[in-house]
Specification:
Elements (H helix, E strand, L loop, with lengths): L4 E5 L5 H11 L4 E5 L3 H7 L14 H8 L4 E4 L2 H7 L2 E4 L19 H13 L3 E6 L7 H11 L11 E6 L9 H6 L4 E4 L3 H11 L8 E4 L1 H32 L3 H9 L20 H14 L3 H28 L8 E5 L14 H11 L3 E5 L5 H8 L13 H4 L6 E3 L3 H5 L4 E4 L11 H7 L5 E4 L6 H6 L3 E4 L7
Parallel strand pairs: 1-2, 1-4, 2-3, 4-5, 5-6, 7-8, 9-10, 9-12, 10-11, 12-13, 13-14
Helix pairs in contact: 1-3, 5-6, 9-11, 9-12, 11-12, 12-13
């Protein structure tokens, strides 16, 4: 069973970059990425690589090499499924907003729709691969949809299926590096030939000892567990950062000290404004739902605490900003550096910036928001509030006071800092680490504050510029 034609359903943050790397490493396989969203597909086909729907370092170069050769993007879902001998399901699996399990369980309607499309259009033998992150035992649902509609279509060709679980572990911002050099590839399944056909694809660039095979349920559950463990480390270190601030300890020193223990390890111990991204919260809540469903409330409570702590931590930061700014931010100009949920991505899903900005807007602050990759239109959707572009034209701080609770996007950091009472750094973009604080300090209104929620700014340089500084987890600052 050698795979020659792949169809990937879903051209998002996972489907796009993953299939780009597959195409690059497997020139002998034709890869078709399909999506319902026409605008997204047209952007994937755009000659101008800055218009690609996903920003990832290194992605543009791969797209340039492979697009039109063995990597294609289209909305022709039916034809591409028909022609494929392997179909990846890489669609979104957000948290349900209504019905049973609302607020916790994953909404599988897009996955189910894909299974129905595959059942309807596939021809001959087709391996269906779960790439989306799914609750344990979803493969059962997919199999039942595929098998229940096996007969009576497809030009009398006998259609048969195997289902595999192949969760994706890439992190945004480093997706290409993670895909090209993964810590491991996980393949869960029951059918030896199907597992072999997917293993052979990965073996084009991944050493065999890094390709793990398990039963299908272990594979599904391992993905949720990996995200839960990673997120748990962040909530753990963030909880200690609050304690550092009140006791005179420094979270970076604590992280270094504990991370040197090889049993703990040094990664994922950076205290920040709280984890964001489309998956950590959703996947933990999914795990919580599963534990509740299977009658294990203690396990559900244990994991839910990770999400509670994260939310508490984000509001803790908003509250301390207000407190340091003399108890009120009404009519005060605040410059926000960073809206993406981490550096090197244009993704804002569940970004800590959303909650922190919403809190400050609610308190009456006037926000000038900067981000190198996020568009103002996306910020407007996330804040559920239109941008007021007039703010940028107002030069006199006294007039600006009248616009409490409004925001605008400002490309130029110096202009964003002009007359501001505070600068709040929320995403660790590299250009923010190179800011000239003396220059910024001269432009701000006194007393001026810098809030560094990522601990990436030079403390000495900010203090030299006579600015007040709060740095996450730094108990040595007053
Ligand atoms: P996304 O929202 O960026 O992309 C999903 C795409 O699927 C959308 O473009 C949507 O239009 C398309 N789609 C939905 N239903 C469809 C259908 N029936 N037919 C055709 N297209 C359809 O989502 P994403 O971030 O790529 O995540 C996809 C899955 O991968 C999720 O389960 C997520 O948990 C998992 N995951 C995401 C990441 C990440 O870094 N974003 C990493 C690992 C795993
Ligand atoms: C995460 C996992 O790292 C991936 O393995 C997984 O595939 C993916 O979720 C997924 O399933 O979607 P991602 O969310 O893209 O990847 O990015 P991370 O690097 O994990 O960062 C998540 C959040 O945690 C970000 O807001 C980041 O700033 C924060 N973080 C990360 C910290 O606050 N401290 C750290 O030490 C690390």
């Amino acid at each position: 069973m050698r795979i020659k034609n792949i169809c990937c359903i879903g051209a998002g943050y996972v489907g796009g970059p993953t299939m780009a790397v597959f195409a690059d490493k497997c020139p002998h396989i034709q890869i078709e990425v399909v999506d319902l969203n026409e605008e997204k597909i047209s952007n994937w086909n755009n000659k101008d690589l800055t218009k690609l729907p996903v920003y990832e370092p290194g992605l543009g170069e791969i797209i340039q090499r492979c697009r039109g050769r063995n990597l294609h993007f289209s909305n022709s879902i039916k034809e591409k499924i028909e022609a494929a001998d392997m179909v990846f399901i890489s669609v979104n699996t957000p948290t349900k907003t209504k019905g049973i399990g609302a607020g916790k369980a994953s909404d599988l309607k897009w996955v189910e729709a894909c299974a129905r499309q595959v059942a309807k259009y596939a021809k001959g033998h087709t391996v269906v691969v779960e790439k989306s992150t799914l609750p344990v035992r979803t493969a059962e649902t997919i199999m039942s949809i595929l098998h229940s509609s096996k007969s009576g279509h497809n030009d009398n060709m006998q259609t048969t299926f195997n289902v595999l679980s192949n969760p994706e572990f890439l992190a945004e911002g480093t997706a290409i590096k993670d895909l090209e050099n993964p810590d491991r590839v996980l393949i869960g399944g029951e059918n030896h030939d199907a597992i072999k056909s997917l293993t052979e694809i990965y073996q084009n660039w991944v050493p065999k000892n890094k390709i793990l095979t398990t039963n299908i349920w272990s594979s599904e559950l391992a993905k949720l567990t990996a995200n839960a463990f990673l997120a748990q480390r962040i909530s753990s270190i963030n909880s200690i950062s609050a304690l550092c601030e009140t006791t005179g300890a420094d979270i970076r020193e604590v992280s270094r000290a504990i991370g040197s223990d090889s049993r703990i390890g040094s990664k994922f111990l950076d205290s920040g404004p709280g984890f964001g991204g489309s998956c950590f919260k959703k996947d933990i809540l999914n795990l919580v739902y599963l534990a509740e469903y299977f009658g294990l409330p203690e396990i559900a409570n244990f994991w839910e605490a990770v999400v509670h702590l994260n939310k508490w931590h984000q509001h803790r930061i908003s509250k301390l900003i207000v407190k340091k700014l003399l108890g009120t931010v009404i009519g005060k100009k605040i410059c926000i550096l960073g809206f993406a949920f981490k550096a090197n991505t244009n993704d804002t899903r569940e970004s800590a910036s959303i909650n922190i900005c919403k809190d400050l807007i609610e308190e009456g602050a006037i926000l000038f928001i900067n981000d190198p990759k996020v568009r103002p239109s996306q910020i407007s959707i996330d804040l559920d509030k239109e941008e007021n572009t007039n703010l940028k034209k107002i030069k006199d701080q006294n007039f600006l006071n009248n616009y409490e609770g409004e925001w605008c996007f400002e490309k130029n950091i110096l202009s964003a800092a002009e007359g501001a009472d505070a600068i709040v750094l929320l995403t660790e973009w590299e250009n923010y680490t190179k800011i000239d604080w003396i220059d910024i300090g001269r432009r701000m209104r006194k007393p001026s504050w810098v809030f560094d929620s990522r601990s990436v700014i030079s403390k000495e340089k900010v203090l030299e510029a006579n600015l007040n500084l709060w740095k996450i987890g730094d108990g040595t600052l007053k």
